[in-house]
Specification:
This protein is mostly helical. The protein has one domain (11-305). The protein contains 13 helices and no strands. The longest helix has 42 residues, at 264-305. The two termini are 38 Å apart.
Length: 306
């Protein structure tokens, strides 16, 4: 990936890492499924009146909206409302890398390199370390399972994005958000109930407003606009590893803003995640550089022999 594209991927990581903080603040005052519905309604209206339908079928855009937005974030939002901390959620959600690479290999024929596999294993070791400390953290079993479900949805969403091959990804984000908000609102009414929804609207605070604004305009428009563009211009296995930086941002921001404890094992887990990212990015580049250095020598030997 060119340096400019790497910078864009880093911006996405920072935006999504901080997003967990704002979601955690939001679900403390608004029911999670209703907050999801609000997020994607505001992300699409009034934008749908100015953004044309993307160059993709309704089926593909609807699938993207329901899977990437509806399923993934209903699971994430709910997990943060049932005892999951923002830092832990940001770290555990990164198992989506394995689902993304797996789905890309099965359905798109993208074969991961040995470096990418090794880097993923190193990063997964850090996630295992987190799982080993579940009894000492604020994470519950339902919260853990919901984050894993969100990771699977994210992996499927990446596959749909890749198969869509749409040039105007902002339009996909806008219309995908619009489609997903209606089933989310219906499920919210059925599960959370109209009383909770009306109570949250009646007691809508400035914290809820700021949280919703960040979730809608920064995380959705900026984050997913850049992410979808990167996915469409590079192999999934090359772009996805950048999301390993999301938990680092999430944990650090959770420590400073939410007062989450930063134990030694969290530092070690974070270091393993960063190491996995470095292996994924630096490994293939070093191999290519080594081949380029050797190639002139091979040409010289061929010349002497001839």
């Amino acid at each position: 990936m060119p340096i400019k594209h790497i910078i864009l991927a880093l911006i996405v990581a920072v935006v999504w890492g901080c997003n967990f903080i704002f979601v955690k603040l939001g679900v403390q005052e608004i029911p999670p499924l209703f907050l999801c519905a609000l997020r994607f309604f505001l992300a699409s209206v009034p934008a749908i009146f100015f953004v044309k339908w993307p160059s993709a079928s309704f089926k593909m855009v609807a699938s993207y909206g329901v899977v990437m937005f509806g399923l993934q974030f209903s699971f994430i939002f709910t997990s943060l409302s049932v005892g999951m901390t923002a830092g832990m959620a940001s770290l555990l959600s990164q198992v989506q890398i394995f689902f993304s690479i797996f789905f890309a290999a099965i359905f798109l024929g993208e074969r991961p390199t040995i470096w990418q596999i090794f880097g993923a294993i190193v990063a997964f070791t850090g996630i295992i370390l987190v799982v080993m400390h579940l009894g000492n953290s604020s994470m519950t079993l339902p919260g853990f399972l919901l984050v894993i479900a969100a990771a699977i949805s994210w992996g499927l969403g990446n596959l749909i994005t890749k198969k869509m091959s749409c040039s105007n990804m902002i339009a996909v984000v806008v219309w995908g958000s619009f489609i997903s908000c209606f089933p989310l609102l219906l499920v919210s009414c059925l599960i959370e109930g109209p009383e909770k929804i009306l109570f949250s609207l009646h007691h809508f605070s400035w914290i809820a407003a700021i949280s919703l604004a960040y979730i809608v305009y920064i995380s959705t428009w900026v984050g997913y606009g850049l992410w979808n563009w990167l996915i469409n211009h590079h192999p999934v296995a090359s772009v996805v590893p950048f999301t390993l930086l999301v938990p680092i941002v999430g944990i650090v921001s959770s420590v400073f803003i939410m007062g989450e404890a930063l134990q030694t094992w969290k530092l070690i887990a974070s270091a393993l995640v960063i190491a996995g990212l470095c292996i994924n990015i630096v490994g293939p580049r070093l191999l290519k550089k080594k081949i380029k250095i050797k190639s002139p020598q091979c040409e010289l030997q061929e010349t002497i022999v001839s």
